[in-house]
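Entry 12.
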Amino acid sequence: MRDNFYPATKRSLMLRVNGRCSNPICGKATSGPNSDKNKSVNIGKAAHICAASPGGPRYDPNMTSAERSDIDNGIWLCSVCADLVDKDVMLYTKELLRRWKKNAENIAWKNISHNKAKGYGKEVNGKLRLEIKFIEKLESIFSDNDVKYIIKEHDFRADYAKSWLEPLYDLLNSYKDIGPNFLDPKFTSCFKTLMENVCDLRRILAFGGGHSKKNSYMSDDHIWFCVDSEEDRVKCNDIARRIWYLYNELVDYYRDFLHQ
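Predicted 3D structure (tokens):
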């Protein structure tokens, strides 16, 4: 049996945040006019912070039925964000959702009390939209098994397949397109350092070696190369470790931003 919210609770959750999604990266309005002048459209949801029934996201067996249906266990989100937070409970914890709710209500209060509000719409969404888009691209690239292997685990004293480097070229090209538009100084600094290291690794691997004599075969997927000098091999390993460290630092910063 689900411990659902009463209609009055849902309405209060919506009104307490000016009808906007409580996710600080989103903040979109969740209601508007219908083509029928007597009706309106609502794309918002009164979402449970801790699930309304066993097996649901963030379910807390220690809560009573009344606590699960209480307004303290609710947060107002757009339908997209409501689905999102339920699909990744490791990232979207109950503590995070409660911070979102508190911050959204503070912003709503500042709006109606004529103080300058911080957090919603263009101010946050516009400032970090590109950075977040690029973080998501980073996660996509670095989750590839070949990239993860060559950056995190490969010893450049061994041969490498040149095809493994293609995602790094893709990463550099993407950065050239949107990197100059980053606004957040920490993103800008860390991304710049990451890209410098990726450029250094690409340069050594592209120009500091030759075809492997041990793996002389070639195919469309793998053309085998080796780094010629011991000095360059050491450099490649050091650079790869720095790239992996910087990548994780950026992802952690992204996570911290979500939890603000």
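Annotation: Residues 230-258 form the longest helix (29 residues). The first strand starts at residue 31 and ends at 33.
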